[in-house]
Write a structure and sequence with these properties.
coiled coil, alpha+beta, 27% helix, elongated, 333 residues
């Protein structure tokens, strides 16, 4: 039985628009096979290379659908730039050892900053799958597919980079406005007010109270203390920048720590106030206890004798009933 078909997003040099490629995991498809099917006739496959979500792929034998190229990732085919002196010749003075030494040290994979930026806006920050509703955002402005994040929390599989997410209270449900007709300029969502694409070209904010995602341009041009979509009022601290710069993320992290410290302090104060109320109630209850004469007997008096002045001299156990007399305490017969 064949496995269920899966998809990846594909971009080629001849088309700036994303294409959808459907593949069957049970029938391996290598990057080289895919490359040969995409390049023009008589083209040299060595003059092209792939990147996946902005990361360079140096091995053409990698199969599509592998951990390096997971389903729903963005795969881009690019031209390889050639360098050199231009004459293509060699002086003969080069040593073979220098070339061996040059390639002996493994160099880190090059990452296209544009692809990396785009991936943060169109893919889930955790699973790297294409963003799809319902989506959530953490307090630092990272956007996730809600299902992927909840599953990671339940299975305790969150990476260290997201250890600030401790539970559902750290998620903000966000409402992304889909682009009518589908993808446009590598974006699937847009600002509901200005129509600007949600692809990293423009700055966007999410409002924590209602979850609507608006462009910075919309919030700047329309001065309002209420959401421009649902009209729910918000404060400046309710605005969370999405995929912000390092400085912006640091500011969000500082705000998050302050809010958590405030919550802990408020809980402690409520607990202390609750303890004071319980203690005061206990004192009040103690004042209303039944009076016992034996408890205030003079120093030289026997407690039982002193108490008998105010109560019956017989104990309840001393009262007995016979066939001719029903003995009851005074006031009860």
């Amino acid at each position: 039985m064949h496995s269920k078909s899966r998809q990846i997003l594909l971009r080629t040099p001849n088309s700036r628009r994303l294409q959808t490629l459907t593949f069957d995991p049970s029938q391996p498809l290598s990057l080289r096979d895919l490359k040969l099917s995409l390049i023009p006739d008589h083209g040299n496959p060595d003059t092209f290379y792939f990147t996946a979500n902005g990361k360079l792929l140096v091995d053409d034998s990698i199969p599509v659908g592998s951990p390096q190229v997971p389903a729903l990732s963005t795969l881009t085919l690019r031209h390889r730039l050639r360098g050199g002196g231009g004459d293509g010749g060699a002086t003969g003075a080069e040593s073979r050892d220098c070339y061996l030494k040059m390639y002996a040290e493994k160099k880190p994979d090059k990452i296209d900053p544009n692809e990396q930026r785009l991936s943060k806006w169109v893919n889930c920050a955790l699973s790297y799958e294409t963003l799809r509703q319902p989506c959530v955002m953490d307090r630092l402005g990272n956007v996730f597919n809600k299902e992927a994040l909840v599953e990671a929390l339940i299975g305790k599989k969150l990476p260290k980079a997201f250890n600030h997410i401790r539970g559902l209270k750290d998620m903000i449900d966000v409402k992304l406005e889909p682009i009518p007709g589908g993808e446009s300029n590598n974006a699937w969502f847009q600002c509901p007010i200005t129509g600007l694409e949600f692809n990293g070209t423009y700055k966007f904010f999410a409002l924590r109270k209602c979850g609507h995602v608006l462009s910075a341009k919309a919030l700047k041009e329309v001065k309002s203390k209420a959401c421009l979509v649902c009209y729910r009022e918000f404060e400046e601290r309710d605005k969370v920048v999405i995929n912000g710069s390092e400085e912006e993320v640091d500011a969000l992290r500082e705000r998050m720590e302050e809010e958590r410290a405030r919550v802990v302090k408020d809980k402690k104060q409520r607990k202390e106030r609750s303890g004071d109320v319980v203690a005061a109630k206990g004192v009040a209850d103690g004042d209303n206890k039944r009076f016992k004469a034996a408890a205030v007997a003079p120093a030289n008096a026997t407690k039982e004798v002193y108490a008998s002045i105010f109560t019956s001299s017989k104990k309840k156990s001393d009262f007995r009933e016979t066939y001719s007399c029903r003995s009851l305490p005074l006031g009860r017969n």
